[in-house]
Amino acid sequence: MPETSETASRTPADFWFDPICPxxxxxxxxxxxxxxxxxxxxxxxxxxxxVLNENRLDELPRQYVDLIEAGWGPVRVLTAAxxxxxxxxxxxxxxxxxxxxxxxxxxxxxxxxxxxxxxxGLPEELADxxxxxxxxxxxxxxxxxxxxxxxxxxxxxxxxxPGADGKQTAFFGPVVTPAPKGxxxxxxxxxxxxxxxxxxxxxxxxxxxEDPKFD
Length: 215
What we know:
There is one protein chain. By secondary structure, the protein is α+β, with helices and mostly antiparallel strands. The chain has one domain (17-197): Glutaredoxin (3-Layer(aba) Sandwich). Helices cover 46% and strands 11% of the residues. It is built from nine helices and four strands, in the order H-E-H-E-H-H-H-H-H-H-E-E-H. It has helices spanning 5-8, 22-37, 49-53, 62-70, 72-85, 90-103, 110-119, 136-147, 182-196; strands at 11-17, 40-46, 158-162, 168-172. It has a four-stranded mixed sheet with strand order 2-1-3-4. Strand 3 and strand 4 form a beta hairpin. Helix 2 (22-37) crosses helix 9 (182-196). It starts with a helix and ends in a 19-residue tail after the last helix. Keywords: Isomerase.
């Protein structure tokens, strides 16, 4: 997508996601709201809970292991789509997949992925990538790029923005439900940038007492 004067004046926000994560989905919908109320341009990148947890499967509950083992398929398809059709397809394909997985509760299977590819205007044969490691090198590189900014102790999403010194400031989260809209989205963004750009600031957290609320 060619750069215009409008996009050039927007602050880039690099967003790493795994489409199977409901909390990353909530944060991504918030970021789309932020784009409407702040001069921000979201740039989408793939990371993978399957890659993140592949060496600690014996420490995890069986239900979560099943989830992340099945999670290889969607991130491989996203990576194949990016490689063949450019990074600009990641946002629409993520929206198509996430809407089906989270809002509609459809299973993580080939039929769901094919349907999402069609909605995003992409060839359905990209679904074949789910069952091959042909794109894993690129997938791992994208994952490491994101997780390397914040450390191995966190998951998805990861967001990175230019700091006051021009270097990237990255953080995990925010984890929020439901996704704030309008001015509420703007306030959360402003606050997130403020704490993320504070030297020496690392963590602000409380126990989650609600499940993701999809709307």
